């Protein structure tokens, strides 16, 4: 028997179910939109912060480079004139250079380990005649500079004249041996205030750490170290003579996404799970896309795009420290096509992955190993001696040529290597690649002639 109103209640129940389903779908759709807006807002903020941090880093490097080039020119002059310098001539030159850069507080020139020349003299009288071995706080650093021939940036430290100063010490080398030391005292307050004024943006605040070029482990250089502990701070490192500085940048505006997050937390479990899954997939896919844009999918090595960026940075660093070699190795696997033809592409992939792992193990931690294409691997080496360059090249060759076990088969390839040194063999990456490629083919020809041919493939 049907009770009166049963159809009404049935239709009402159907309407409620339909409304509930519609509400659930709308909630799910709304969460997707809100999640997307939240992600876009966070991405936009991150991009803006990254842009400001990059601008800040570039301007900081520009100001430092201007000071370092000034010191480099003066050091070259002092070395050339080492036997014919006169006190009045040096004082005149120091005066001209002192006026040419507003951030320089003073210059000091030591012959051997004794300071003989200072400009300006006023306020620096106590420095004249100072013997570095008698200065226990300064001598270890200066001794290291004299032994290595590498410049170093120390400080900032409080100056007796007042204010904060950076000490840029450059060894004066004569025929490869230590002759003296040039110290440039940089007004760090003036330097950082200039960078801050030029990069002024009320939306951001920044701080620098890395006293005595100690990077993220160093004390404050400018601003507050507390900024580095903020979760929304973006940190970038800057190369300086003798080490690194770290710059932290953080938006001043408070996080305005709290309301959205609270609303999302109040959403239903079912719709929250749906949106969380979609967001996870979106973020993961974006991350994969970003990774694939910079890294080779098979070997996991940096690809051409990332290698070119690292090479340009390495060349810039080498220009600031011309005494250090920067080299490029171009590796081509011999008989790799034969592996593919006889054993299949999976075997070829196994050989490539093994070559990538072995190449990474054969170089130093800060060196860059990239896949250039096909069976070609390229290696970027910084701050390396010619002896170490030869050692690494031989280590790469012997390691990569070792047999590879794959599905019960033993595979083996040789490797031809070409070497090019920046800037001796080329003023840019294209020229270096051309030079290294030519050497590599010369090495391949020699190896194919029978002088150094790898063992044949095992069948």
Could you characterize the architecture of this molecule?
This protein folds into two domains: 20-294, Beta-Lactamase (2-Layer Sandwich); 304-448, Alpha-Beta Plaits, CATH 3.30.70.270. It contains eleven helices and 15 strands. It has helices spanning 6-80, 87-100, 139-148, 188-198, 258-265, 269-294, 304-320, 336-343, 345-362, 386-400, 429-448, and strands at 104-111, 114-119, 152-158, 164-174, 177-187, 204-209, 220-222, 234-240, 243-251, 325-334, 368-373, 376-384, 404-406, 409-411, 414-422. It has a five-stranded antiparallel sheet, with helices on both faces. A hairpin with a 2-residue loop joins β13 (404-406) and β14. It starts with 5 loop residues before the first helix and ends in an 11-residue tail after the last helix.
